[in-house]
Predict the structure of UDP-N-acetylglucosamine 1-carboxyvinyltransferase.
Amino acid sequence: MDKLLITGGQALQGRVRASGAKNAALPILAATLLADGPVRLTNVPHLRDINTMLALLGRMGARLERTAEGAVTVQPAALTSFVAPYELVKTMRASILVLGPLVARYGQADVSLPGGCAIGARPVNLHIDGLRALGAEVSVDSGYIRARAKRLKGARLVMEMVSVTGTENLMMAAALADGETLIENAAREPEIADLADFLNAMGARIQGAGTAEIRIQGVERLGGAEYRVMPDRIESGTFLVGAAMTGGCVRVEETRPDCLDAVIQKLREAGGAVEVGPDWIELDMRGRRPRSVDIHTAPHPAFPTDMQAQFCALNAIAEGVGVVTETIFENRFMHVPELQRMGADIRVEGNLAVCHGVGGLTAAPVMATDLRASAGLVLAGLVAAGETMVDRIYHLDRGYETMEAKLSGLGASIERISGGNGTATP
Ligand SMILES: CC(=O)N[C@H]1[C@@H](OP(=O)(O)OP(=O)(O)OC[C@H]2O[C@@H](n3ccc(=O)[nH]c3=O)[C@H](O)[C@@H]2O)O[C@H](CO)[C@@H](O)[C@@H]1O
Ligand SMILES: C=C(OP(=O)(O)O)C(=O)O
């Protein structure tokens, strides 16, 4: 199992390019199943989750080609299987995203239940209820969701809770349904608008994606398309927090500042001088220690839960007391005990983490427990005195493209220690 060895103390300086967004590329890859012609995607990041999604599409019979530059061509015609098996779903929950496209286009889908994960129970009842409302027969047995439908029928879907992948699954299914679908209380994450833009490029008729009300006129067929995946706002935000924590100055290029308003606001509150251009964000914290900030995670456009662990790391070394409230997932503070092992003064009370900033952290061997927790620990390692070894970085590899190379490029002392066969544990 690979690890990261980080020697703390270097301020991050320079420019770094944002990769394509994992959470946009995954639903877009799933949506290629709806097409009856070839799809060419660019800016697809090289990530473990993307490999898993490609393996899943390949196993169903899709023909795939990938170039080193991040282009992927998918020829989805002539699928031979409509199953998302447990061994793939257990390594990546986003496999659930093939459910809507398969049942809409092929009338059948057998998708393993994802089960709980490190950050919470994460049920998929909204995906199932929505497909039933669109006319699918859905049963759950032997750990699999089995959905069948001759042709889905448009319907008014009122989402009981805001769900990102739930909204995406139902939007994809409705794109090929008979008639109009209205999704109310839809998630408003930018990745949903990106998916809708891609579906529209294939011939779908979707309006309102990115707002709480999405209107979809079902069409008979969807064709091939070319599409560029949007930049990763969470990766961008992670580098900016790194700059703030290390007293550095970093410009993230080829990103989308308009998707990061809540994060930029908190970085400014923390004392960062933030400048924004059409496709870049620069944060300058030279000569200053960050101030603690209060964080309250909530669906977009509020502060994203996927940036919470990184801001816990920032608060750990900031001046003052910051209270972090996690409202999306019930178990997303697993980075806290690891930060405590590095000397952080953070107390968790239910869904609150009360962080008293300390003057400095000390290096320790720490263990990553999930994707963003790993990112928080890497950031902590950048400022800790001594050598921090972050174990189980297969979590990090799910969602950060060449993170150590990008951080090295910004002046960090960080090295991947290869652990042999690279087998990943979910
Ligand atoms: C691949 C992807 O895009 N992942 C993102 C997506 O996950 P994901 O789409 O899985 O997260 P959701 O938006 O669905 O989850 C939000 C909340 O709703 C609950 N819920 C969800 C569905 C459901 O059927 N029933 C239910 O109760 C969840 O347990 C959670 O408490 O949005 C999360 C919230 O922004 C992000 O952290 C993830 O990075
Ligand atoms: C929680 C995340 O991803 P997933 O929903 O794929 O587990 C994430 O990207 O932080």
